[in-house]
Automatic annotation (TrEMBL):
Signal in keyword set: yes
UniProt signal peptide: none
Key words of the record: Signal
GO molecular function, one term: metalloendopeptidase activity
Domain M23ase beta-sheet core residues, every copy: 223-322
PANTHER family attached to this UniProt entry: L-ALA--D-GLU ENDOPEPTIDASE, PEPTIDASE-RELATED
NCBIfam families the record matches: barrel_OmpL47
One protein family per Pfam: Peptidase_M23
Name of the protein in its database record: M23ase beta-sheet core domain-containing protein
Superkingdom classification of source: Bacteria
Key word Signal present: yes
């Protein structure tokens, strides 16, 4: 029976090895370390009483020791278990429990899955030695089934091939210095920016990064690529480079994208470059295909399209990667389901984008799987810290742990991470690091009695635009709120050093000399009307945009000012703007200084109209029982005086604009609820006064009735009678001997106005 059980077990193990299971596109590969065993010493066991070397290939993924072949389960492994590989690392863990005084009680405990990735190397030939040792009991040890399990996330069909799309090496920087200087991230929740699809309302301000970090602070929700700008030392008019060799085409059909280059790389992937300058494009002919080499200039950094500071403000590169999921060579039909993140998905949990299902054009779709596509790796260290001390380097950071900093072997994860600007004044210099110490199972160590040293080298990094005494290594538990550590700065060696006794995220930061955005104003000039922000087309409307850099001392000056008119594209401002077409205008503008400070978008509105002829309109104010004379369809200054003509008194009303003047001479008679007004003459500017034929405007106010009567040169007679009880107005119009009559609900008001020397009327 025992033989049969063993045979079945071996067959199941072989099946697991030959037919590995896939979870979230991660292949689980299991290697048997040992079946359950008991060891009896005669008279004593050797210190190492059992060991086995596991040989396997490794490219990426986690490696654990576990009781079950799927990487789960708890099991007895004796008192001490160790894993090591020559020239890579070694780790030991004591599995005995402790009593209430914290002293070893020599009682082995079950072990949960133990992460030993730190002793594995990228190689086709890993030889990991697993050893079982005794600690207290030299005569008897018991161990249960144990497997080495590799969660293999390597995809042999994908080869990293991309480089960053600007010449960072020309500034003396390495890939690791700038790859995480990200302005706006790819949103793994809903990267739907290039579509008319909407994300749920509760996610409108949230994004998920490639490390499965959910954030309300990082920019920005729905974003389907990466923006690289000031933070990555990408400046306006810098060359944009092909991220890999391929075939380039120019696209100008996306208003928000601006001038765009697509590059097909012949491997199922296409890269897209948005917001380029109109000058310097490798081609500006839509549909034309141009072969480009890796790192060949294809355009210049610009701000065409939608580059409001709400996202990555000002000139920047929007970089996007699309995978041809259906393999038809048409990448447009893979928007958005083929959009991928070149940083991959760096989490053990499933990628929300890959698992998001949606309907588009009558087809059910889901997001594409993202692979790490940069041909250079992010700076990542996974190693073991021993009680005898360690020194570990990761890119520009160096950690030094003194002897007895830890009392037993622990695992160290030491990764570079992106750091957002802490404030307008405080800015990171280079990438940050996230440092974790843990036991490989479930216990993480963050605070210590002893201190360790963290060094940061700022060689070849530009620190000239920071306040000299402001540099410090900062720490943060959440990546948002940063606290300065006591830091020593060695300018000769270009190194910053801090002694700390806690683990978290760290970054080297400084305070900018100039952290204030420019101030831009628009001055509008032209021939105005008497309405606010309204101009006539008699002369051009001229807009001068003026910018000052703040503060006025210690700044580098203005880099550029951009503007757009209504829904047109953004353009760089170089000279005054001229407008003479009739219409309404909205001008948007903002400036960027040479320290990378970006102003919020400002706007100015104005309209251009045909010149309004100056005419007068006469109405009756029923509340105050008086006639009112105003300019028709505009507001102008008005003055009134009494004049005498042939010893009779008349009212002379003068209406004035900047270019025109109109004088009305009128006569008003008032007799107990009867009000009469007649226009005697009109004079436009300095023309000869026009004598008006007989005309009268009469108002009769009675208890239940209001009557309005207008007579114009005996040719037109208009009568409005309002019945207060019925709330109806009877309108009678006699014009050229033709009589019209109608009855309308409510009160209607009669007025009359001048029209190039004549008189007309309207009913409101």
């Amino acid at each position: 029976m025992s033989f049969l059980k063993n045979a079945i077990f071996v067959l199941l193990t072989l099946f697991a090895l030959l037919y590995p299971k896939s979870i979230y596109a991660v292949t689980v590969r299991s290697y048997l370390v040992t079946e359950a065993k008991e060891f009896n010493g005669d008279p004593f066991l050797n210190r190492v009483y059992y060991n086995k070397t596991i040989n396997f290939a490794y490219k990426s993924g986690r490696v654990v020791l576990s009781h079950n072949p799927d990487g789960t389960g708890e099991g007895y492994v004796g008192e001490v278990i160790g894993a090591s590989q020559s020239f890579i690392g070694a780790f030991e863990r004591n599995m005995n429990g402790v009593n209430e005084k914290g002293v070893n009680d020599c009682t082995p405990q079950k072990m949960k899955p133990l992460d030993i990735t730190a002793v594995v190397k990228k190689s086709e030939n890993n030889n990991v030695l697993v050893r079982f040792k005794f600690d207290c009991n030299a005569s008897y040890q018991k161990i249960e089934d144990l497997y080495l399990v590799h969660f293999d996330d390597y995809d042999p069909n994908v080869t990293p091939f991309l480089d960053l799309p600007w010449d960072y090496k020309a500034d003396g920087k390495a890939f690791q210095d700038v790859v995480l200087q990200i302005g706006s991230y790819f949103d793994h929740t809903f990267p739907l920016l290039s579509t008319n699809l909407f994300e749920p309302q509760e996610y409108e301000s949230q994004l998920t990064t490639y490390k499965n970090e959910s954030s309300l602070d990082k920019r920005y929700s729905k974003h389907d690529g990466y923006d690289y700008g000031n933070l990555a030392f990408v400046a306006n008019n810098d060359n944009v480079l092909a991220a890999a060799a391929g075939q380039a085409t120019y696209v100008n059909t996306c208003t928000a994208c601006g001038n765009t280059i697509y590059i097909y790389h012949g491997n199922g992937y296409q890269t897209r470059y948005y917001h380029l300058q109109p000058e310097g494009l490798i081609t500006n002919v839509p549909g034309q295909k141009i072969v480009v080499n890796d790192r060949q200039p294809i355009g210049r950094v610009g701000f065409s399209g939608n580059v409001d500071p709400r996202g990555e403000g000002g000139a920047h590169i929007h970089f996007m990667v699309v995978f041809d999921k259906n393999g038809d060579g048409n990448f447009d039909d893979n928007i958005p389901d083929g959009i991928v993140d070149p940083y991959g998905w760096q989490s053990d949990n499933p990628d929300p984008w890959e698992n998001y299902m949606f309907s588009l054009n009558g087809q059910e779709k889901n997001g594409a799987k993202s692979h790490y596509l940069w041909k250079y790796g992010l700076s990542t260290v996974n190693t073991v810290i021993h009680p005898d001390g360690s020194s570990i380097i990761n890119n520009r950071y160096n950690l030094t742990f003194p002897k007895n900093f830890v009392t037993r072997d622990v695992f160290l994860k030491f990764n570079t991470v992106p750091v957002s600007e802490s404030s307008a004044e405080l800015q990171p210099i280079g990438a940050g690091v996230d440092i974790t110490l843990w036991d490989g199972i479930d216990t993480f160590f963050t605070n210590f009695q002893n201190f360790f040293t963290i060094d940061f080298s700022f060689t070849n990094l530009d620190i000239t635009r920071f306040k000299p005494n402001s540099f410090s290594i900062y720490s943060s538990a959440d990546g948002t709120n940063w606290q300065a550590e006591s830091t020593t700065i060695d300018l000769l060696k270009q190194k910053a050093t801090a002694q700390v006794n806690h683990l978290t995220q760290f970054a080297f930061m400084g305070q900018k000399i100039d952290s204030v955005a420019p101030v831009t104003t628009a001055i509008i000039s032209g021939t105005t009307t008497n309405n606010p922000s309204e101009y006539t087309n008699e002369t051009p409307v001229i807009i001068n945009i003026n910018t000052t850099d703040q503060p006025t001392i210690g700044t580098l000056g203005i880099d550029y000012t951009i503007f757009k008119v209504n829904d047109e594209d953004w353009k760089q401002y170089n000279s005054p703007l001229y407008f003479n077409e009739i219409g309404e205008y909205e001008i948007f503008y903002y400036s960027v200084d040479k320290d990378g400070n970006i102003e919020d978008v400002k706007e100015s509105k104005f309209s251009i109209v045909n010149p309004i002829e100056l005419e007068a309109e006469i109405t009756f104010d029923f509340e105050n029982s008086r006639f009112l004379i105003n300019a028709k369809d505009q507001t102008v200054p008005i003055s009134t005086e009494i004049i005498k003509i042939n010893k009779k008194e008349f009212d002379q009303t003068t209406l004035s604009t900047s270019s025109d003047k109109l004088k009305l001479v009128t006569k008003t008679d008032i007799k107990k609820n009867n009000y009469d007004l007649a226009i005697k003459s009109l004079q436009y500017n300095n023309d000869t006064p026009v004598e008006m034929n007989k005309n009268t405007f009469k108002i009769i106010i009675e208890a239940n009735k209001l009557t309005q009567i207008l007579n114009i040169s005996k040719q037109v007679k208009v009568r409005l009678i309002y019945n207060k009880r019925k709330d109806k107005t009877t309108i009678v119009i006699i014009e050229n001997s033709i009589r019209q009559k109608e009855e309308i609900n409510g009160f209607k008001k009669l007025s009359f106005f001048t029209s190039t020397g004549a008189i007309n009327y309207r009913i409101n």
